[in-house]
Amino acid sequence: MTAEQFRRYYGALPEALLLVDGDGKILAANEEAGEMLGCPPAALESSRLDEWSAGEPGTLRQYLALCSGNSASMPGALTALGRNGAGPLALRLEGARVDGSILLRLRRRAETTARFLALNERIADLNREIVERQRTQAELEGQREWLRTTLASIADGVIVTDAEGRVVLMNPVAEALTGWTLQDAVVATLDDVFRLLDEDSRAPVESPVAKVLRLRTAVGLANHTVLISRDGTEHPIDDGAAPIAGSDGRLRGVVLVFRDVTERRRRERELLETNERLERTTESLRQFAYAAAHDLQEPARNVALYTQLLERHLHGRLDAEAEEFMAGTIDSSRRMQRLIEDLLAYTRIVESQNTNAECDAREVLDAVAANLQTAISENEAEIVCGPLPRVGVLKAHLTQVMQNLISNALKYRGPERPRVEIEAVRRSKWWLFTVTDNGAGIAPEHHERIFKMFKRLHGRDIPGTGMGLAICERVVSHYGGQIWVESQPGRGAAFSFTLPGAKA
Q: Is 228 helix (H, G, I), strand (E, B) or coil?
């Protein structure tokens, strides 16, 4: 390929392209390549590719040698030293031999451009150049050969039709997926070559090409569509089609790009089945936990009651060691009662599905302060808060969160008089609450662990079941929010959580 031919057919394409020889000399560059490297195409054409590379020269030479021996696209990488602030750039290369030279496509590795759209535009531009610049059949065939070379390097299936919907070009991937060779396809109808069915209903699906010819615009294919190959094999596919228009605006044809998504669909089905199994298992475990905790309430109450009665009956008749055993039994029975109550509270959270629930956070805080009045007075604690909003949660749920956080602030106090500050800040449709205390603090390695069930940091030195923060996390996540803590030992803790605002 000559530099003039490159400029004629590739100069206006919306992707960075270089034409180089086997030694890496840049023979031609289009405008996109110049813009990517921060250098005019003319300046690029007077340089060598290794002058723009920050990598090992030997690696680049090996890659060019590989491309020189292959007409199919070969992947590679290049760290380019761009100019005028354009580099260094981590690039992905795709190179293929074209008439003795190497055609290189340059792409940024982090690029997330929609591949189908880019391919459609490139092929449309190529076909437009063929129609506009070549008038004789011999010249047109030459252009088609250039196009076949380009299509052969594309990993997706590509079919090009004329304005009547007849196949004029297919790349090897399209031939493999449809089971039709180009030679057979050009004398068949597109509906025979590209036969589509709805995966669920098995009803025929309109060809994207026919839709483009009807709507004169780019279209995509609905999900759950399968391509039936010539031998009856089914391939789940994604595809898109776009019109090819001439400079006069007339429709010249259609380009169809598609890919086999069998493996992706298999993974999606496996993931769906796994999720369904997990949901069933989770629901069974939740029901079991609820039933077990509910049924254990009465025996736990009886154990606590009879133990207290036994203590009264034997009061003064037991030695010191027996008294200690009795006290331990009573304490354990009470802890068991509290644990069962917390387990029931934890499992009941997901039962509330009222999407219209809302409450006034200030009213909730006042009720919590009343509930904890004894502990607040005993600790001489100070509760401070700014304006609080209405939120879209059940009052009982917000009460659980507030009461657990404030109770913990009093329970795990530091040497100073406890001070608890509550504030709320609007974040779009969410409210960010922060409950800050000046207590004992929490080491960073425990910041995530404390929200798990039964996770306690102080053993039995401080009463508790290890369920309080787990209930907070359960409530917040039930409404789609998040909860976290920022703290250091001896410096207090700031618990933050997000809840949806009231709908009104």
A: strand
